[in-house]
Design a protein that fits this description.
Layout lengths: L14 H9 L2 H18 L8 E4 L13 E10 L3 E10 L5 E2 L10 E6 L3 E2 L4 E9 L6
Antiparallel strand pairs: 1-2, 2-3, 3-7, 4-6, 5-7
């Protein structure tokens, strides 16, 4: 993605989210957290595991990358020691673009998932990522 975005959490953590993160096997926890984020964002389902959510305001100043992708953070989920981030990815080019989760991974990323791997011109997809709180290089 090529630029540093820092998110700061205000408020405390949910005891339910902390317990979920502590008592759930690592891989299952990451999969479940991403599924909960996707279900909330795409289907309007209530959040699981004590997560809270913050809408991130749209930034008109964000410009497409060299490859023609317009990438914008839109939601932040707050857990115990983990945060979830949802990025809107718009294909602003005039050709189809193939995406991989690896394109969106940063040093602090623990897990990620794409809503779709191929975007037609002007089509929008989403990347769902999980990071550890305090990580600022996403």
């Amino acid at each position: 993605m090529g630029q540093t975005v820092e998110f700061t959490v205000s408020g405390g953590t949910s005891p339910k989210a902390t317990a979920f993160e502590k008592n759930t096997p690592y891989q299952s926890m990451l999969v479940s957290m991403i599924a909960s984020m996707m279900n909330y964002h795409l289907k309007g389902k209530p959040l699981d595991h004590g997560l809270s959510v913050l809408d991130i305001p749209h930034d008109e100043a964000i410009k497409p990358t060299q490859s023609g992708l317009l990438i914008q953070p839109i939601l932040m989920f707050n857990g115990g020691q983990l945060q979830g981030l949802v990025y809107s990815i718009k294909n602003a080019s005039n050709k189809s673009i193939h995406l991989t989760t690896k394109q969106f991974y940063q040093k602090s990323m623990l897990a990620g998932s794409l809503s779709k791997q191929d975007l037609k011109p002007l089509e929008v997809g989403y990347f769902y990522g999980v990071i550890e709180k305090g990580s600022s290089d996403v």
